[in-house]
Amino acid sequence: PIYERSWMHAVSPDEQFLAVVTVKFHDGRYVEQFEMIIWDLKRQKEVSRHACQRVYTSIVFLPDGATAAYGNSDGVVLFELLSGRTLRFLPVAAITEFAISPDSRELATVSDDRMLRIWRIEDGVELHCIQAHGVSAKSVAYTPDGRTLGTVGLDGLLRCWRRDAMQLTMEISFSTPPITLEFSPDGKKAAILDGQGRAYLL
After folding, report:
1. CA angle in degrees (0–180, nearest 5) for 20-197-155
2. Bridge partners, residue 94, by sequence
3. Residue range 110-129, pLDDT digits in tens
4. DSSP code for 133
5. Of all helices (H) and strands (E), which one includes residue 78?
6. Contacts of 132 by beta carbon, 8 Å cutoff, 6+ apart
7. Nearest-angstrom CA–CA distance, 31 and 10
8. pTM
9. Which own/partner contact pairs does 46-55 have at CB distance under 8 Å and 24+ positions apart?
């Protein structure tokens, strides 16, 4: 039998929109046929759909309330919420995660090729590209002030980078590779989750 299951979801900052990604399963195994549906929660109706044959990795709503972005194994797509129209495509092979800068001017991506890339959202220009880790880079996050980027990778490292110069400022090693990273609202702490489900607050 073929059936659908929720793959991931995200809610916009103003709590007006909900994005739900579903994936089709056949005989207990998923087939690469994904679909993202955007719902208007206040009006309780569907506003757009996005079909994709690639695995979705992230969904992020921009603060403007009109734009969102999703990542898949080909790159990042920025689109209009209501029309579903694609605004920009940023080509990044084997992307694992992306993050939007606090001022919504930039987008940072990490991928299985170990690289950290910074893109200008306005025109899709790649501003920086550096090797962030020795093996696959798994997560990226901006501090709330936008001055620092953090990345984690399967080499077991948390690394922090000064955004203006893209220079490494801090490195912490973990016995089990971390896979997700988030900064606290004041930027003074970082939350890490490793591959065995253990959480760290630094």
Report:
1. 100
2. none
3. 999 999 999 999 999 999 99
4. -
5. strand 75-80
6. 110, 114, 115, 116, 151, 153, 159, 161
7. 22
8. 0.82
9. 47/17, 47/81, 47/82, 47/84, 48/79, 48/81, 48/82, 48/83, 48/84, 49/84, 50/77, 50/79, 50/84
